[in-house]
Design a protein that fits this description.
Elements lengths: L7 H7 L9 E3 L5 H4 L2 H10 L6 E5 L2 H13 L7 E5 L7 E4 L3 E7 L7 E7 L5 E2 L1 H6 L7 H5 L4 E2 L5 E2 L1 H4 E2 L6 E5 L9 H4 L4 E5 L7 H7 L4 H10 L5 E4 L9 H8 L5 E3 L9
Parallel strand pairs: 1-2, 2-3, 11-12, 12-13, 13-14
Antiparallel strand pairs: 4-5, 5-6, 6-11, 7-10, 8-9
Helix pairs in contact: 3-4, 10-11
Length: 270
């Protein structure tokens, strides 16, 4: 999960997300709309008798804020809340498992703020079952073949890996950038990602307001997407001053056509 504002649990229920599968939460910064839902979520997980550790990746000061609340309202938790602090000023890998890495992206906002880059790892090659059976390849040889090795039969025949496997699905990259003003220093981090979520709090006609609050406009988000050669742009974090969000889409599409507006409950494929 990225950020955890007030109402997160309600949205998870509406989206039919299995709360028990949640193991890692990444907090971009310590403004209330991005973290006020944490203590309630932590409490609810305790009522479900959760036993698996919950990891919260954030600015170091969040631990000092949350621990007194946890000890007051959640002192009988059946699981452990583990804080994984990182510096929003730097870019570093802050999480890694067998399938992906998560790296921080330094952003510019009123408080120390970080974006996140989710990068799938290169997958192993796909075995062609018929070829494995044809050459009577033992199970012990398959792991090396998946990693790109050729196979040598008992007669000394070298079977090229390309005859035994298919290319894996290319790994995907997703970048999340909110809250932040327009900064081109993030371009190397979001270069060529499959999907970029970038805040667009204001329309460009309100650029002065965007600058004073250290937010971005839809036009600026699209400009970054174009310069970074991303494949798809998602806009969100719209100011409550606007009743109609269609102008955000039109503004961004004037520069970057493959743009979509984010609405509650959306499922985005890329």
């Amino acid at each position: 999960m990225i950020d955890c504002g007030e109402g997160t649990q309600r949205q998870m229920l509406a989206s039919k997300v299995k709360i028990s599968r949640l193991n890692n939460i990444f907090i971009s910064h310590l403004h209330g709309d991005h973290c006020f839902g944490l203590i309630g979520l932590i409490s609810t997980l305790g009522m479900f008798n959760r036993t698996a550790d919950l990891y919260i990746h954030s600015h170091p000061s969040l631990q000092g804020i949350l621990e007194p609340l946890i000890s007051t309202f959640c002192n009988d938790l059946t699981y452990k809340v583990c804080f994984e602090p990182f510096s929003p000023a730097n870019s570093e890998v802050i999480y890694e498992d067998r399938s992906l890495t998560v790296a921080s992206i330094p952003l510019k906002h009123k408080l120390p703020t970080s974006g996140f880059l989710f990068s799938e790892k290169e997958r192993e090659r796909n075995i062609i079952r018929e070829k494995i059976d044809f050459y009577k390849i033992p199970l012990s040889s398959i792991p090396l073949i998946k990693q790109g090795a050729d196979f040598v039969t008992e007669d000394g025949l070298v079977v090229p890996n390309a005859h035994l496997t298919l290319n894996p699905v290319p790994p995907k990259k997703y970048a999340y950038c909110s809250d932040t003003m327009y900064i081109e220093r993030i371009l190397p981090f979001i270069d060529s990602v499959d999907c970029l979520y970038h805040e667009s709090t204001y329309l460009h006609e309100d650029l002065s307001k965007a600058k004073s609050t250290m937010h971005s406009t839809a036009l600026q988000a699209a400009t970054l997407a174009s310069k970074a050669n991303v494949k798809q742009l998602l806009l969100g974090h719209f100011s409550a001053r606007y009743d109609d969000f269609q102008p955000f889409l039109e503004e961004a599409k004037s520069i970057f056509p493959n743009t979509h507006l984010c609405q509650d409950g959306d499922r985005i494929e890329f």
